[in-house]
Amino acid sequence: MSKIIDGKAVSQSVKDRIKEKAARLKEKYNVTAGLAVIIVGDDPASRIYVNNKKKACEYVGFDSYEYALPEETTENELLELINKLNNDERIDGILCQLPLPKHIDENVIINNISPNKDVDAFHPVNVGKIMIGDYNFLPCTPAGVMELIASTGIDIKGKECVVVGRSNIVGKPMSMLLLHKSGTVTICHSKTKDLKAECKRADILVAAVGVPNLIKGDMIKEGAVVIDVGMNRLDSGKLCGDVEFESASNIAGYITPVPGGVGPMTIAMLMQNTLTAAMINRNIVKE
Ligand code: NDP
Fold first, then answer.
1. Quick one: average pLDDT of 195-221?
2. Considering the entire predicted model, what is its pTM?
3. Domains within the chain, CATH numbers bracketed
4. Ligand 1 binding residues, C-beta < 6 A
5. What is the rounded average pLDDT for all residues in the chain?
């Protein structure tokens, strides 16, 4: 039976670390980091995410500013708000909750957030910096996965790492972070010929697909670290990962559950990025 990687516990320790650093920023420089969260429309899932982000800000001692805009907000109106926040000294990080309504081009919005306030690390400048390994912000979900792998004590160097999924938000940056840690990285996607054979080679397997239970126990190498990024809502309302937990947990060495694995890490890493942004925007070298 595998060891369960407890995302709630790891994320709590990350948030506690940030809380301490935030207190030091306040004490030494009288600085309170500020995160602006924009939500357009009333998608219930987005609303939950935004509320959780606000709660995390409160916990670590950041100011949060919510901008809840109606569904019919135009692209120009949203750009005006972003421009205002780019120039607002109280705001260190700007997060625009995705997905946006269809009439707004997400890329236009992302490209207009100041790279120094881009706490999601989606701006092309930050994406490029990740590519060359010289970055301030890491995209929150892959960064959270790296913390979870670190919590096992397993060194990535020289390991066979397989990432299933090549999205700009998860799969691609995930692969790059594993590569920076000297893993030997394979990226799989919907056109991969023999997914089972690729997965079976992995010492570290990260599934970021969006297909419930795609990865079964017989696709996993004995003792592997298995990280399940998938968050799929079944018709029953139950949340389910991309990895079939029951069969996989008999084979893997370490495995993340869904929920309670990667999910809690994403918000913790957002707090980390907001702290980093506060230091950059306020020219603080060390907290
Ligand atoms: P995308 O839909 O953007 O990307 C999915 C990727 O999976 C694509 O690269 C696609 O390949 C690949 N894929 C689809 N079907 C298969 C298949 N049968 N075999 C192999 N590869 C396949 O999803 P995201 O990256 O945004 O998200 C992935 C999952 O992670 C989702 O469940 C999402 O909800 C979850 N998620 C969880 C987060 C968290 O905080 N825990 C944060 C972000 C996402 P191709 O490129 O060829 O189409």
1. 98
2. 0.97
3. 27-115 (3.40.50.10860), 140-264 (3.40.50.720)
4. 141, 164-167, 169-171, 188-192, 195, 208-211, 214, 229-232, 262-263, 266
5. 97
